[in-house]
Amino acid sequence: MPKPSRRSFDELLVENAKLKEQNTQLRRFGAFNGTTKICGDALRVARIVLPWYFIYRAVEAYAGRTSVLDATGTFRVESESFVEAVEKILNAHTLCASFVLIGIAGMVFGYKQIKLRQRNIQHLSPYQQKYERLKDSKRSSSQLSPEGETRPGDE
Q1: Domain boundaries, the chain
Q2: What is the mean pLDDT of residues 119-128?
Q3: What is the rounded CA–CA span in Å between residue 85 and residue 81?
């Protein structure tokens, strides 16, 4: 077997050093990859176990105790005018009336948000279609309505 020349031996030493560095980097990356996998698995387990643990703790705290909730109410207003009736209701049931008003305001706000979102989608949908055609002209369209809703046949 012929003896390697000095030049090829030096090249082999350089290549060996490069390979050792690559090996070190791969080992570091493998350790990092393993750590992230373990952390991800721990988070998945915690998402399942922790809610049940807290439910158990809440039930354990009330075990053997008796709780009674008695909620009764009557609603009777006698007045000469509608304004007086509303004033009596608000004076007698201010908290209840405020909750009802907050609920109604929340529903109105939600309805307005839905309409605003549909208006924005309708305004931006031509730009989205242009972008999709530029990005991939062979791509088929989802054929959403201009408001962003699915086609009636796809539901």
Answers
A1: 1-62, 81-155
A2: 82
A3: 6
